[in-house]
Specification:
The structure is a homotrimer of 186-residue chains.
Chain A lengths: L5 E8 L1 H4 L7 H12 L1 E9 L3 H12 L6 E5 L10 H6 L4 E2 L1 H11 L13 E4 L2 E6 L3 H22 L29
Parallel strand pairs in A: 1-2, 1-3, 3-6
Antiparallel strand pairs in A: 4-5, 5-6
Helix pairs in contact in A: 2-6, 5-6
Chain lengths: 186, 186, 186
């Protein structure tokens, strides 16, 4: 990792996990992954798929100056109880739409159903929130897809005035080296 | 088709078709396509490009428990009278942004102007709404682009607790087998 | 250029440029590029990163019937003072999300950080606004990425009833000639 470790909170959103009917696997999978790649998990929580409860928990965590990043897992799909994005909209001050777009595009490699993920990324004060899917694999893969952006996003959101660090990149559309568009008849 | 046929309503949004000055071609093209690939069209309507009228028609259709999917055609562009997305925002409870993103990306194969399509996909109660472009070809091509997602989206929106069915997929960025991003200087 | 030259306003959003602590380079770079490729720049402004100030300036410019397009540069990132998109949301009547999506996708060719750009494109009355990044290079590259769409977008937003002009296009996903999705198990 470049720079100091981030402090992270992980929130599992699941009715069944909150009622103790299912063992939360996604939360621990995220914790393990974060500790290895990104920083230190200093709080975890399990909440039901209830908008006011999710919102209150996100506010509580994001308003702690010691927390850089809040990751949620679960509730990003299209089932009637999936309302994590709506709860997240209620707490963020500014959206960062490209992070969610990138998660969906990267998810297309694995399954077209990734396009149904409604996860949101946004900023509240000095803190960033990112909604991840509910399955352990989906959550970790989605997080991995945007990892190169996360530290920069958080550094900037916290007011770092430094110039953008260089992140290695590989052309996304390798077979077409020019623009996606052209002007044949202009 | 896998599973029982869906019940679908098709709404043509067009001032001229609503006034009888133009024969609606997109509505019938969608009906024909839906009956062949997706399910049964049980209602059709033609409405003018007026937000309150579109909104009322969408509410009326989406609140019928017998309708799984409402397709609109027309009014998704950038002309002054194009307000179908705004009307749709007024009736949906939850957006599914990746469906519209995928329609635009697939549309880029045909024309860069596909990126100007402002169509929205969302959920209200047990019903899904999808805005399609106004031309017969554009409407059918856009629908075809997201067909693999539609049944799953509707099943889930209606509370099907089953695990995600597998949908065949092909790598989207074939020439680049790894992530779109990497970490050269981490 | 096809058709008559567009009339354009360029707004630099930057606290330091507004205070005279930094020479505005992005505004002049955009002016030079626009005059060469797109039309005539008839007004320029430099405003601080204050939502009400940006909003008032955008309203003032977009409500002039002589202005087709307002380009902003700066304030699209994730730093605490970056609020150009929020100000823009406050003035547009209709969003055109695909334009911002395309700028981000094209930006991925240069740097993954392009996905953190939060720029918005939208319509107010007969006028189009487009948020561009703050660096001269980023601003010009982003504008170039969507240039093929801009004239069509503006013509249509101003009520041109003509059929869509053909814009040359090249397949976006060259190695995969079919749809991004398929139906192996349908």
């Amino acid at each position: 990792m470049a720079g100091p470790a981030l402090t992270v909170a992980v929130v599992t959103v699941s009715d069944r996990a909150a009622r103790g009917e299912r063992i939360d696997q996604s939360g621990p999978a995220l914790v393990e992954w974060v500790e290895r790649r990104l920083g230190r998990v200093i709080q975890t929580a399990v909440v039901p798929d209830e908008q006011p409860v999710i919102r209150a928990e996100l506010e509580r965590l994001m308003d702690q100056s010691s927390i850089d990043l809040v990751l949620t897992t679960g509730g990003t799909g299209v089932s009637p109880r999936d309302v994590t994005p709506e709860a997240t909209w209620g707490v963020i001050e500014r959206e960062v739409p490209g992070v969610a777009e990138l998660m969906r595009l990267e998810g297309l490699r694995h399954t077209p159903l990734a396009m149904l993920s409604r996860g949101v990324c946004g900023i509240r004060g000095r803190s960033v929130v990112l909604n991840l899917p509910g399955s352990p694999t989906g959550a970790v893969e989605s997080l991995e897809a945007v990892l190169p952006l996360l530290r920069h996003l958080i550094d900037k959101a916290q007011g770092d005035p430094a110039d953008c660090g260089k992140i290695g990149t590989r052309p996304i559309f390798t077979a077409t080296s020019d623009s996606l568009l052209n002007f044949e008849n202009e």
